[in-house]
């Protein structure tokens, strides 16, 4: 009896009947039906409101439903909804110019994609063409997307079922003091040892076989490890010494997330290629891309670039990017993210760590924070999946939508969440973490 069903049941039943879900065993998914969203608040179909501490998959950097961006998308749809990539449009030119302004150094040319994984694919293809070499070096603790090449460059365990071992990718360890594989005691040691390890990897793999080193400026899903001072500059120096392309992935860490326009702005480093997606449109319309240095752009000056996408530079997506960047500039959203980090999340999460033995470490910057949860503070053994699920469940029950990955909860709200809402979310998290403490023996 269709009439007796609530609208929510209908949506859920139809979803379970017909939607195939990412990364999931299909019989075990249990999606929440969301009806609407505004700013930092989501409204579920049953009317319950949730404070969004996830920015979904860390992309609604300006919050949900910003009226200026929504209007810009509607206006673009009415005027010129779509266009083949060979043509020029005001939206595409405007988005490319703004990305070039934000990107460092001479990364003044932009190839647009539909998202982050395609940005990885094309950055890697450009590096391979440019060097005439195949191998890509990337961090074990990384995520670069789920297409065939991107998932093998990805270091984390999502690679395993997709890894045919034939894609010319090699992984290395980056700096991560809390779980140091180098037995370091200080950030300086960790930085120096991680750079030595990378250099040895380059030498032993053979520099003449390597196209590029690719890494997230600040690893995101892998745990938000802000690199120690000097690490990225050290990687840049190694790439220069051995003639390798440096690709920095700003898909998650960029566009305000780290309290700066790009995460790389915190470090004295200019890559040869930079990938972006997510926050560039706050996810309102899918968009990603590669910002390209002059020497690589000029390499394709006479010879054609062997790659393209039907929707490269799609007007709707580019109009969303223009409006998002303009709103971020007008409203000082990057500055807001920086202030959230220093005034609210830094001190607030430090206090939470003091209150809860299950919080092994708090780390982050801007609106980009991770709580590394443990079942034993001494050995740093990760929290059990059951205890993490109980913690996340308690947070949701209390009206907070957190982001969890591995053994961690990430605090990654909109960059313009109000300090009051941010504190409300921290209070809920503080209470929910008693569920994690309970699991400590
Ligand atoms: N790179 C990073 C750092 C990411 O966090 C992600 C997605 O989470 C990607 C690339 C892939 O982006 P997409 O899911 O848009 O393909």
From TrEMBL:
**Protein name listed in UniProt:** Taurine--2-oxoglutarate transaminase
Instruction: Tell me which PANTHER family the record gives.
Output: AMINOTRANSFERASE (PTHR43094), AMINOTRANSFERASE CLASS-III (PTHR43094:SF1)
Gene3D superfamilies, per database record: Aspartate Aminotransferase, domain 1 (3.90.1150.10), Type I PLP-dependent aspartate aminotransferase-like (Major domain) (3.40.640.10)
| Similarity comment | Belongs to the class-III pyridoxal-phosphate-dependent aminotransferase family.
Q: Which residues form a coiled coil?
A: none
Question: Do you know which InterPro entries this protein is assigned to?
Answer: Aminotrans_3, Aminotrans_3_PPA_site, PyrdxlP-dep_Trfase, PyrdxlP-dep_Trfase_major, PyrdxlP-dep_Trfase_small
A Gene Ontology term for the protein's cellular component: cytosol
- Matching Pfam families: Aminotran_3
- Membrane-crossing residue ranges in chain numbering: none
Alphabetically ordered keywords of this record: Pyridoxal phosphate
- Domain of life per record: Bacteria
